Each structure stands twice: as structure tokens, then as C-alpha cells.
From TrEMBL:
GO molecular function annotations of the record: transmembrane transporter activity
Stated name of the protein: Major facilitator transporter
Keyword Transmembrane helix set for record: yes
Superkingdom, taxonomy of origin: Bacteria
SUPFAM superfamilies: MFS general substrate transporter
Subcellular locations according to the entry: Membrane
GO cellular component: plasma membrane
Organism expressing this protein natively: Caballeronia udeis
Keyword Nuclease: no
Length: 454
């Protein structure tokens, strides 16, 4: 037996290897994603001052928030295909450097047109980042460990709210007027520059492949490469064409669209919903907005741990979606009671955020090689359409009716639809292969026992 093969590697050695990989990659990738999502949604806090300063309507804000995803959608797939040619390390760094610079450049917005242009360019710059990271993780973790790893990485979404809410509120309260700049302008500058810095660090910190990882021992590298090769041979789809056009990829993309409708509704409108419940001060809004995000971060990790331990994927995705819908419904029903609205928004945010981390375990379970790079980009692109639809529609409803309630209820319905569609994906395709192997063994034992009795 090959001493580096997965079967020959002891459980202790295996655990040590993946622990080292996790501690090497996840903290850095988490910080990168935190910066990414912070740059994407800080416009929600800037809105609290920017609309009045620039005389923008809610419809202008909604369109600007959404046009980000037009650029994101158009360049998502090309970006991930370029990743295959350039290498993950260089491409991830390029994405972060350019979007950090553009995010800081949002301080120069003065008209609706300039707002739309900068948001569009920000989407172009960031296109491909999430699929690139998720594809990069397939270089280092087998599917049986990927739910927890993906969730740990994606806690950058809620943690951007935990950190970004109070930070954004503080910046706008205390930096406004400094050097002639408004608080919202300082917000874009101070939250954009760190992203570009992390992009430069990525160039020297990340490795393109396992064989380059000098921080792993030679036996660990050999074991990991062997384990990943063994798993990739079991993937159903491999070609770029499969990743772009296969019906299963398109189905997953539609499911993701409905879940991200809820995600972007929460991301772009949570501060506004808290304000509508009776909270006026930007710092107080920022502090309160941290509560749902902190709860969501914990939930994401707990659900992912359960999913990896059981090997079950579909219920671990659908149930959070249903919980998110319930939370959003009650946030509308009790919109003018801050305590009840906060409880409901916390439940809604927990559910919404958990669906996103759990969803991204599904595509790599089906796709391998170039199909994974293309398929992840396609799913994220289709999901990005909801980033255009969700904030714009809610903005129109807000402008027309003076209330976001009906729009939020629409997001709840979207989460329910996504949860139902999850069960159209065959369990055998997405459940952990270890779980399916155990089922096969149990079935063999039962059949063997039946034959013996016969």
C-alpha cells in the first residue's frame, strides 16, 4: 500500500494535516471575505447620510445598490475562466487590489450617474472572487470536510456586519467634517484601503497548489494530493461545457437565486429596517445590526458541523431557508417594536446567512476540474441577478408606499421557494460520499444477512 495514500495515513495524521491547512488558510481567507463583503454592503450605512447630502431618492439608491451586480454578473464567468489560466493566487490578489481602490473611490460620487458608474465598476472588479475562493478550497479540502470549511470562510458575511455595523456608525458619527469630507466619504475610504492591502499580501501568502505548500511536510503533501485525486475521479462533471450548460448546474443556480434574494435584502436594508423600528442614531443602528450577524455566524458554524458529521446536505440547507422566511415575516408584522423586530431580524439573518454557506457545499460535490470553476461562476452569476432585483424592487416599493414591508415579505416567499427546490436535487449527488458509502455498506450487510438466512 502506498504510505501516502488516504487509507495508509492514520486518523491522527489526517486530522493534523487538515488542522494545519485550516489554520494556515482560513483566517486569511476569512479576513479577505470580510473586507469584500464590507466593501459591498457599506453603501447600506453610507445611505443613512449620503441620500440627504446628495439628494438621492430611495429608488436611486436601490438602483445603485443593484447595478453593482450587473457588472458582477457580466464578468463573473470570464473571471473564473481566467483564474484557470493565471492561477488562483494572482487572480485573487488582482481582484482584491482593484476592488479596494474602486471602493475607496466611491467617496467621489456626486450624482446618480457617478453613483451608478462606480457601483458598476466595483461589481466588475469583484467579479469572480467568491467562486475563486470556493474553487481554491477544493484544492485543499475533500468534500467530506468542505461544509464546515465553507461555513468558516463565509462567516465573513455576518462578521462584516458585526464589525462593519459599529465601525461604519462610528466613522460616520466621528469622522464627518474631517478634512472637508462627509462621514459617508470617510466610510468608503477607510473600509476600501484595507482590501487592497490584503490583495498585496495574498500574492506572497497563498500557494497555487499543494506541491508549493512548504508549510506542509512532504508526507502531508503526498497524502493530500492522493486524497484529492481519488475524490476528483468520482466527480460526475468535468468539462467547462458541463459547468456552463448542464441542467444540474442551472438548477443549482436557480436555487441560489432565490436564497440570495433574501441575502441581499437583509444586507442592503437591515440598517433601514432597524431605523424604521424606532432607532435614529447611526451608531446605535450599527451596534444593533451586529446582533443578527453575530448570531448568524454562530449558526453557520453549528449547522455546517452537523452537516459534515451526518453527511446530509439538503435538509441542512432547506431548514435554515424556512427559518429565515419566518424571521422576515415577523420582522414586518412587528416592524414598529424594536425588541420584537430585532428578534425577528436575528432569526431571519441567521436563516439567510446559513443557506448561503450551506449552498456552496453542493456544486463542488457534483463538479470537478474546469467544470467546478465554470459552474461555481455560473451559480454565483445567476445569484447575482437577485442582487440587482432585490434592492431595486424594495427601493421602488419604499419610494412608492413609504414602507419596505411588502418587499421584505416577497423576500420571505423567495426563501420558501428556494427551500422547496432544494429537494429536486438528488440526495446521492450532494450528500457526503462517506455517508453514501456507509449506506451502501449497511445495505450490503442486510442483503448478506438475508442470503445467509435463506
Amino acid at each position: 500500500m502506498n504510505p501516502a495514500s488516504p487509507a495508509a495515513f492514520s486518523k491522527r495524521d489526517e486530522a493534523s494535516t487538515f488542522s494545519r491547512i485550516t489554520w494556515r488558510l482560513l483566517p486569511f481567507l476569512f479576513l479577505c471575505y470580510l473586507c469584500a463583503y464590507l466593501d459591498r454592503i457599506n453603501v447600506a450605512f453610507a445611505k443613512l447620510q449620503m441620500l440627504k447630502d446628495l439628494n438621492f431618492s430611495d429608488a436611486v439608491y436601490g438602483a445603485g445598490a443593484g447595478v453593482f451586480f450587473v457588472g458582477y454578473l457580466l464578468f463573473e464567468v470570464p473571471s473564473n475562466l481566467l483564474l484557470l489560466k493565471v492561477g488562483a493566487r494572482r487572480w485573487i490578489a488582482r481582484i482584491m487590489i482593484t476592488w479596494g481602490i474602486i471602493s475607496a473611490g466611491m467617496m467621489f460620487v456626486t450624482t446618480p450617474a457617478s453613483f451608478y458608474i462606480m457601483r458598476f465598476l466595483l461589481g466588475v472588479a469583484e467579479a469572480g472572487f467568491i467562486p475563486a475562493i470556493l474553487f481554491y478550497l477544493t484544492y485543499w479540502f475533500p468534500s467530506s470536510r468542505r461544509s464546515k470549511v465553507t461555513a468558516l470562510f463565509m462567516t465573513g458575511i455576518p462578521m462584516s456586519g458585526v464589525v462593519g455595523g459599529p465601525l461604519s456608525g462610528w466613522i460616520m458619527n466621528h469622522m464627518g467634517g474631517a478634512h472637508g469630507l462627509a462621514g459617508w466619504q470617510w466610510l468608503f475610504v477607510l473600509e476600501g484601503i484595507p482590501t487592497a492591502i490584503f490583495g498585496l499580501i495574498a500574492l506572497v501568502y497563498l500557494d497555487d497548489k499543494v506541491s508549493d505548500a512548504k508549510w506542509l511536510s512532504a508526507p502531508q503533501r503526498a497524502f493530500l494530493e492522493s486524497a484529492l485525486v481519488e475524490e476528483r475521479s468520482a466527480h460526475v462533471l468535468h468539462s467547462v461545457k458541463d459547468g456552463l450548460l448542464h441542467p444540474k448546474v442551472l438548477l443549482l443556480s436557480v436555487i441560489y437565486f432565490f436564497f440570495t434574494m433574501g441575502l441581499y435584502g437583509v444586507s442592503f436594508w437591515l440598517p433601514t429596517l432597524i431605523k424604521a423600528s424606532g432607532v435614529a442614531d447611526p451608531l446605535d443602528i450599527g451596534l444593533l445590526s451586529a446582533i443578527p450577524y453575530a448570531a448568524a455566524a454562530v449558526t453557520m458554524v453549528l449547522v455546517s458541523h452537523s452537516s459534515d458529521a451526518s453527511g446530509e446536505r439538503r435538509w441542512h440547507l432547506a431548514l435554515p431557508g424556512i427559518a429565515g422566511a419566518v424571521g422576515l415575516y415577523f420582522s414586518v408584522s412587528y416592524a414598529h417594536s424594536t425588541p420584537i423586530a430585532m428578534i425577528a431580524l436575528t432569526l431571519g439573518t441567521m436563516g439567510v446567512m446559513t443557506t448561503i454557506s450551506q449552498f456552496w457545499v453542493l456544486p463542488p460535490a457534483i463538479l470537478g476540474g474546469a467544470a467546478a470553476a465554470a459552474g461555481l461562476a455560473v451559480a454565483n452569476s445567476v445569484g447575482s441577478i437577485s442582487g440587482v432585483v432585490s434592492p431595486y424592487v424594495i427601493g421602488l416599493i419604499q419610494t412608492a408606499t413609504g414602507s419596505t414591508g411588502n418587499g421584505v415579505l416577497g423576500l420571505a416567499v423567495s426563501l420558501i421557494i428556494g427551500s422547496v427546490l432544494v429537494f429536486t436535487v438528488p440526495a446521492k449527488l450532494v450528500n457526503s460520499r462517506k455517508r453514501e458509502a456507509m449506506k451502501d455498506m449497511e445495505r450490503d450487510v442486510i442483503e448478506s444477512g438475508a442470503q445467509t438466512r435463506a
